[in-house]
Write a structure and sequence with these properties.
Chain lengths: 241, 265
């Protein structure tokens, strides 16, 4: 067993000639809630997809729990993608059956309970559900597992502030506390209060990786304020209106 | 894990085909009574009404739709299930890519076999047979006795039948493997994936024909073929092997692409 849950060394990924990640070195230990923070196109989703095995790195090494990406790492990773991934003909309970079959850490009863507390009828067809309800089902699938690593790709993007709180509360009250949660987002102020560590990504490179307490201590300001300074877009000068 | 994958692939197949297979068989039964009608106990009349014409048309339309849907099913289960949004679920399951591919392949093959069985069974249902006579025990006992004696006399018939089924199965596997490879190669490109997949599928067909043409023109291979196809048993086994070898190569390339070049952007 490795001391670190995630280890990336010289990770490089390009789409054609366009680099998405440029030599990322990252180590994340167990039992942490880590924010993967950066503006759109900074490489957050690419890094998460590499960790899931949905993309293959162009160069570099990547390990989860001491193993290269493969069936073992997939069995300990619980992934929430930024899109719907299930077939419409299924019911939520069909998906729960599928997860129970493939993941030994999936808790079926917990999933049913979570559905009821989130106001989702698990025996309804997914086709008949609204987009928001489908997102809840997907969240239930991810959080009903006692995974070692939760990879949550933009879980609060595109929803109103009340829903953001609701989603974050669901995550925080259901994750395996011995596991690590990696949340990618650019909505820093919403997640800052729950984070242990922050990783700033800019143009495929890690700009900063510190604990949230250290950032506040060193910089004397919030993670959100630091983020805004680092990623502040400079307006074009000399332009005429 | 393969059996677990098969469970879900077959469930998806059943959801899609139970209705159309049922419709085809029910329409065959309807045609039995709308085309052929009993005049008395042993005489069957032929109907030529508009209603019977409509039911025949509906039956043929359902059979045609069944095969079109079967092709679409095989394509969709692979392209959407492994290379599209559903791939986000399937590729994060703790399984190897070959298990995902094999599961889809088995399910696709069984789907087409199911369609073939329904298409073959329908004419029997439509045939003006007196079912009351047919379900009597004496008929079946005589029929089975006849078949049993025939098989005992010519046991090679069973081998031939099994080999014929293997040839059909090999042909299906080769066809599906070609489609999978075409889609997997199309996936390597960032644009015009569907167009490239169609072009690759046509290219694969031309490639296979050319390779076979060259390989079988070599004397050594011809001598081997002559030895292997000296009788009908060997001929059918050779035909199966000729189709299964490229199918296995295609599937190996598909698995390699999914393992090393997967790009669910």
């Amino acid at each position: 067993m490795s001391e670190n849950l995630i280890e990336c060394r010289g990770l490089y990924k390009s789409y054609g000639l366009r680099p998405a990640l440029c030599g990322v070195d990252l180590e994340v230990g167990p039992g942490r809630i880590v924010g993967l923070l950066g503006p759109n196109g900074s490489g957050k989703t690419t890094l998460i997809k590499l960790l899931c095995g949905l993309l293959q790195p162009t160069r570099g090494e990547l390990e989860i729990d001491g193993s290269a990406i493969g069936p073992y790492t997939k069995s300990v990773v619980s992934y929430l993608p930024d899109r719907m991934y299930f077939a419409d003909w299924m019911k939520a309970v069909d998906l729960f059956d599928l997860f129970r079959d493939f993941y030994s850490d999936f808790e079926y009863e917990k999933a049913i309970d979570m559905c009821h507390s989130l106001g989702v009828e698990p025996h309804d067809r997914l086709k008949a559900m609204s987009k928001g309800t489908k997102e809840k089902v997907q969240l239930v699938l991810v959080m009903a597992r006692n995974a070692r690593l939760y990879l949550l790709d933009e879980p609060i993007a595109g929803v109103d502030p009340a829903a953001r709180d609701f989603i974050l509360r669901t995550i925080l009250t259901n994750y395996n506390e011995e596991g690590t949660v990696l949340i990618s987002t650019h909505l820093i102020s919403d997640v800052e209060r729950v984070l242990d560590e922050a990783v700033f990504l800019k143009e495929g490179k890690i700009m900063l990786h510190e604990t949230v307490d250290t950032i506040r201590e060193k910089e004397g300001r919030s993670v959100d304020a630091l983020f805004r300074e680092i990623f502040r877009a400079e307006p074009m000068e000399g332009g005429e209106f | 894990m393969l059996f677990k994958l098969l469970k879900y692939d077959f469930r998806a197949m059943w959801k899609q085909f139970s209705l159309i297979w049922g419709a085809a068989l029910v329409l065959a039964l309807v045609n039995r009574f709308s085309i052929f009608w009993d005049v008395d106990d042993h005489v069957i009349g032929l109907s030529d009404t508009t209603a019977s014409g409509i039911t025949i048309f509906a039956f043929i339309a359902v059979l045609a739709a069944m095969f079109v849907i079967a092709i679409g099913f095989v394509v969709n289960r692979f392209s959407k299930g492994l290379l599209g949004n559903e791939g986000y679920l399937m590729h994060t399951l703790p399984v190897r890519p070959w298990e995902l591919v094999l599961s889809k392949l088995i399910c696709g093959t069984v789907t087409w076999i199911g369609c073939g069985v329904v298409a073959l069974l329908s004419p029997f249902i439509m045939a003006p047979v007196n079912w009351l006579e047919l379900i009597q025990f004496s008929f079946w006992s005589e029929a089975f006795r006849g078949i049993f004696h025939g098989v005992m006399k010519h046991p090679g018939v069973l081998v031939l039948l099994a080999e014929f089924c293997l040839v059909i199965l090999s042909l299906l596997v080769l066809f599906i493997a070609s489609m999978y490879l075409a889609m997997a190669v199309g996936h390597l490109f960032s644009r015009h994936r569907q167009l490239i997949s169609v072009a690759v599928f046509i290219g694969l067909y031309i490639l296979i024909v050319n390779i076979y043409g060259r390989v079988f023109s070599v004397r050594f291979v011809q001598a081997l073929m002559n030895m292997a196809t000296v009788n009908v048993y060997g001929s059918m086994l050779t035909a199966s092997a000729i189709m299964l070898i490229p199918a296995a190569a295609f599937l190996a390339v598909v698995c390699w692409i999914l393992e090393n070049k997967l790009n669910l952007e």
